[in-house]
Amino acid sequence: MLFALSSPSSPALRPLLAGASLVLLATLAACGKGGEPGGFHGMPPAMVTYEVVAARDIAVEREYVGQTNGSREVEIRARVNGIIEKRLYEEGSVVKAGQPLFRLDAAPYAAAVAQAEAGVATAEANLKLAEREYVRLKPLVEAKAISQKEWDTAASAQDVSRAQLKQAQAQLQRARRLQLHRYPRADCRRGGPRAEGRRRAG
Known about the structure:
Layout: H1 14-32, E1 83-87, E2 102-104, H2 107-142, H3 148-180, E3 186-187, E4 194-195, E5 200-201
């Protein structure tokens, strides 16, 4: 059906042209936004992260609390007292029989030896004095010039002096032996390495 259109300047066609123009503009606007993604209230869609679920082997790690013991028990025994000047071994290292472990301060041992030597010298002097007194009184007691008590006292003094000399000599030997232990050594005579030498550190 054909309609005869009047001139655009006709007042009857103006409303129709205005409506057609609005419909055309809306259509063009909708076509221009067709390639953009839609959102919520005109906002772009939010970015999200995702993980692809897949089966795979995972190593399982377990932690345990334990305590270890040495294969051999090491017994530390002190034979002498002293102040440690230096440790002659490294902790955790293997020591051999007879190996020095510590070096102790030598001054106390030297003083003990000197004191013991002085004790021996004093005991020897007392014994010589007692022996001279014994020899001097022997002819007198034979001649009945002194009492038997005086003679017994002289004889006993000589015996006591001899005993004191032996005691002083024993103390000197002990002091010298302790002086040799200034270097405590490892002893392996009892079934395994044993470090003899726990000392008071200075």
